[in-house]
Amino acid sequence: MKKSIVLATAVASVLSSGVALAELSANASVTSNYIWRGITQTNDAAAVQGGIDWGHDSGLYAGTWLSNVAFGNAVGAGYEMDLYVGFAGDLGGFGYDLGVASYQYPLAPSTSFTEAYITGTASIVTVGLWYTVDAASGNENNAFDSGDMYVSASLDFPVAKTDMSIYAGSYMFDADGTGTDKAGELDYAHYGASISKDGFTFAVDKNDVEASNAFFALAGDGSDDNVRFSVSYAVDFEL
After folding, report:
1. Is the Cβ–Cβ distance between 51 and 26 less than 8 Å?
2. How far apart, in whole angstroms, are the C-alpha atoms of residue 40 and residue 219?
3. Nearest Cα to Cα of residue 174 among 233, 122, 115
4. Can you spell out the DSSP letters for 8-71?
5. From CA 35, how far away is CA 212, in angstroms rounded?
6. CA 87, CA 101: separation in Å to the nearest integer?
7. What is the largest CA-CA distance in the chain?
């Protein structure tokens, strides 16, 4: 479940491609905790991540990204592989990005799912909407099933010689409140902030997942009291 900052890097690569008709770039990172939409994807352990992006100066881009994952006592997914394609551009100072992203778990294929997304940026404000358009059989009547919706907003701005981001998001699951053994109350919100410089990022994240939420408790995120601090280092390079 790829972090939005990685997609943003791919979009920036497309928008700054200049004279070249297309370019291929890569990224690699290490993080003390892979947190996606306020939820740890590694049971609070470290992750090694990387990907390859292709961007055309028309605004079209595509890429893939991988990371190790671990979801508490759930069946081990082993690793995550994201595949995405989209189109990004700028209209009078308003940046937009729309596309499709598929989150694949080759060692646990029954939990994979695909989203359509659209984001918009004006000055320091970015808002986005993601909608689950397809999901594997293992997600039926549970989280990450077709019909789920996620919305987010962030403020991104420079502070002295660093880059600051303040963000929040809300996940609305189609199966929320169904009363099934696995689903029950699933919806949650999260918020956080990060500061970055020279590839290093320090972040703090919090969500309002309740301890009674059986699904996310199993994923290693079972309390609304959890405040998570993480540090990561990322590097991008042209191929």
Report:
1. yes
2. 8
3. 115
4. HHHHHHHHT-TT-SEEEEEEEEEESS-EETTEESBTT--EEEEEEEEEETTSEEEEEEEEE-B-
5. 20
6. 12
7. 56
| Tokens 């100072």 sit on residue | 93
Residue 133, token pair as written in the block: 């358009």
**pTM > 0.85:** yes
Contact assessment for residue 157 and residue 164, using Cβ atoms and an 8 Å cutoff = yes
Q: What is the pLDDT of residues 2-15, one digit of tens each?
A: 545 445 544 444 44
Tell me the torsion sign for CA atoms 21, 51, 6, 185.
positive
**CA–CA distance from 225 to each of 85, 152, 176, 202 (Å)?**
36, 21, 21, 20
Q: Which residue, among 224, 219, 188, has the nearest Cα to 206 in the 3D structure?
A: 224
**Mean pLDDT (whole number) for 82-91:** 97
CA distance 11 to 7: 6
To which residue do tokens 């939820």 refer?
39
Q: List 168's β-bridge partners, or say none.
A: 153, 191
